Amino acid sequence: MAGEDSRDLAQPGYQGVRAYLTSRHIPVISARSHAEATGRGDLHPGKWKRGCFATLFQALRQKGVGVSCVWSFGDKDHNMSALEANRHFVTGGMLRKVKFFESIWFKQPI
Question: Of the four, 5, 53, 63, 64, which is 20 to 30 A from 88 by CA?
Fold first, then answer.
């Protein structure tokens, strides 16, 4: 599941990871697209991301599909907050957050 904003989507790294995962039949889901489709797009990003993750995890659970690993792409605090709020749906508890940088030479703390 990907939580992103338009800048994240424009990054070549994001597009490459998305293509790689999709080619291996691993679902990549946009929390923003889900929020807009369900009428939550005007809410605070933390609310619609938590709602998207909860809706997705509940739907998978109802189908008998267990979620054991979730990756979130982006560096916003509400991405990880949404994952943590829905941790009880993740069997085994593996949650990962990925941040892309424009280049490998940066002066930002990690």
Answer: 5
